[in-house]
Amino acid sequence: MKKIAIDAMGGEHAPQAIVEAVLSLVKQLPQTKFILFGDKNKIENCLIGVKCERIEIVNTTEVIDDSDEPVKAIKQKGDSSMVVAAKYVKDGQADALFSMGNTGALLACGIFIIGRIKGVKRPALMPTLPSSSNKLGFNMIDVGANAQSKPEYLIQWAKMAELYAEKIRKIAHPRIALLNNGAEFDKGDALHQEVYKKLLKEDLNFVGNIEGNELFSDKADIVVTDGFCGNIALKTLEGTSQVIVHEMKQSLLNNGIIVKLGALLAKHGLQSLKSHFDVARYGGAVLIGLNAPVVKTHGRSDKRPVYYTLLQIDKMLDEHLIDEFKKYFLNNN
Amino acid sequence: MKKIAIDAMGGEHAPQAIVEAVLSLVKQLPQTKFILFGDKNKIENCLIGVKCERIEIVNTTEVIDDSDEPVKAIKQKGDSSMVVAAKYVKDGQADALFSMGNTGALLACGIFIIGRIKGVKRPALMPTLPSSSNKLGFNMIDVGANAQSKPEYLIQWAKMAELYAEKIRKIAHPRIALLNNGAEFDKGDALHQEVYKKLLKEDLNFVGNIEGNELFSDKADIVVTDGFCGNIALKTLEGTSQVIVHEMKQSLLNNGIIVKLGALLAKHGLQSLKSHFDVARYGGAVLIGLNAPVVKTHGRSDKRPVYYTLLQIDKMLDEHLIDEFKKYFLNNN
After folding, report:
1. Which of A322, B69, B212, B223 is the most exposed place for a label (fewest CB within 10 A)?
2. Average pLDDT of span A294-320
């Protein structure tokens, strides 16, 4: 029986969205147990009388919120849903951790409680993002777990992302590119020039540099980046799409009745645009390099992203991804 | 008489778009002379018989194109439109340089031919970008002139951008933010932590860190960034908006006749969206820190961006911006 530890208190729609996702999955995943950590009363209220021996509740009394300083919070809020859930994973009472709470605190739980895989220098955060012509999208690693990166970190991330893409996304020989400020081999600062050289020497399908404007262009299945630039690129991408969608709505609503009518007629087309950029189906961002799958979705997520993220975690357990990572680092250190 | 040296051969629509812009401006700017560098026959063909003593053509026989390696190109193509134009500026025969050719080569012309202002450590590239609620947009510096940046460079860029925003964009006490991976003062890698501390000590209206998703949010009039991340952020921003606009068109065209009709009715609304993100009216990206205004627009630009960029250059000359820079560095070194 696979066991997923679920921080039921993180995120704007907790625990409702989380419990709903679990209820949708409990029949679909008969070999999986869902352990929900949080305020027992609140969780039970969302369960609306459903009883299932594969849904367990562990009552916790504290919650880490977004304003908490990560490392301090995991030390001081020892009975928080996130920390207790992480301890279950550490002690082997659960196999994986899900949360949509404070990203920094989850990272701290991952590093200080669950622990790194032996040989991994730095864990990294890896989401799956949409591509304009490839339904499988692409992975970007690291998008912000590390403010300061060294060349050897990026090589390890590339390798782990490759294994993830092969095992979980079922992409044979995934194409790996380096986010850089130009296409040519000698582009970038000292860090990126060094990473380029190292990637060439690895047994990876390295396809060269990729620029910010090509991220959606299906040039790569995996984009490797230092955590600082990766964070800025990801947030710029999110901010740009949000502002355009917002302005599009305003433009269609505030330009008179004809435009409004047109927008109504075009609704189906605009919805197909939305579904094109629907990232929920890809699941959450994986905190890669830890002794167990630790995955997070956006704090604003409703049921749907949670549902897909739990499916993603279940698949990672089915495919024994962490064992694959361990095997690799045992043979390459 | 102000004199603008114009590389008439760079960009996809050269020399047509460039000559058209000059023809539109020649009456509007009676105190300005336009010196066009390039293939005399081609330029004269675009001039369609118009004669004006303030439009001069300097025939050149070579063109630097996008595939040329910048430093090599300016050495080997001594009779290229860009290099000859830059030499006119260096020799005082012109006061400013416009080009929409190879950015790297223009940067090389700026540094090696026109030269840096005494005291400026590194020139930087600064475009004006749209904001969601402020018609004046914001400046971002550096977006890629430097792959490797040091803290002191960013401080100088902040200062020059401040003078630009005050003199040219007429913003009093422009708000300056640092592009970083989080809001708190201790965010970022060593470089950005150091820059944060230094910016606090300067006589600038420093408003703290800004994240990638806040770029459009009118939190700052100037965003300071190292050239590597700035390049990635700018290109990510461009790529994201291009892909969304492309997919939006596809969604509206390929979802049946009703959607198409809706799109037709909503056209006016969608055009207002387009004008919201119209960056042409801001002019071009300034190569800041040189002994003369050097400004470039995108190689794909048609007449309109060229028109606004030439206006921008003219304003920089009217306001004696370079003298302001020189004065600052004379007193602060």
Report:
1. B69
2. 95
Amino acid at A99: S
Which residues of chain A from 234 to 273 reach within 8 Å of chain B, CB to CB? 234-248, 251-256, 258-259, 261-270, 272-273
- Pick from A67, A236, A241 the residue to mutate for testing the B interface (most B CBs within 10 Å): A236
A248–B248 CB contact, under 8 Å:
yes
Q: Which residues pair with A2 in a beta bridge?
A: A32
Residues of A whose CB is below 8 A from B224: none
Q: A204, A159 in Cβ contact below 8 A? A: yes
Q: Is B181 on the interface with A (CB under 8 A)?
A: yes
Closest partner CB to B261 (pick from A215, A265, A277): A265
Kindly state whether B215 is in contact with chain A, defined as any CB-CB distance less than 8 angstroms: yes
Chain segment B287-301, per-residue pLDDT in tens: 999 999 999 998 888
C-alpha dihedral, A143 to A148 to A151 to A157, nearest 10°: -30
Phi-psi bin for A232: left (phi > 0), alpha (psi -120 to 50), beta? alpha
In chain A, residues with a C-beta closer than 8 Å to the C-beta of B124 are none
Q: Are A153 and A322 in contact (CB under 8 A)?
A: no
Is B83:B77 a contact under the CB 8 Å cutoff?
A: yes
Query: In 3-state terms, what secondary structure has residue A29?
Result: coil
Please give the helix or strand (H or E) that residue B145 lies within, else none.
none
Hey, are the CB atoms on B229 and A234 less than 8 Å from each other?
no
CA–CA distance, A42 with B61 (Å, rounded to integer)? 78
Q: Do B233 and A236 touch (CB under 8 A)?
A: yes
Contact partners, residue B217, CB within 8 Å, separation at least 6: A239, B131, B132, B133
Alpha carbons B53 and B28: distance in angstroms, whole number: 15
Q: Which domains does chain A have, with CATH numbers?
A: 1-118+290-320 (3.40.718.10), 121-288 (3.40.718.10)
Which pLDDT score is estimated for A48? 86
Q: Which residue of B has its CA nearest to A184?
A: B69
Least Cα separation, residue A310 to chain B (angstroms): 27
Give the distance from residue B25's alpha carbon to the nearest chain A alpha carbon, in angstroms: 32
Q: What is the ipTM of this complex?
A: 0.91
* List of residues 6+ apart from B51 with CB closer than 8 A: none
**Ramachandran assignment for B154, one of left (phi > 0), alpha (psi -120 to 50 degrees), beta (any other):** alpha
pLDDT at position A221 is 97
> Locate tokens 């230092």: which residue?
A226
Q: Tokens representing A269?
A: 């087309």
- Kindly tell me if the per-residue pLDDT of A278 is higher than 80: no
Count of CB atoms situated within 10 Å of the CB of B264: 14
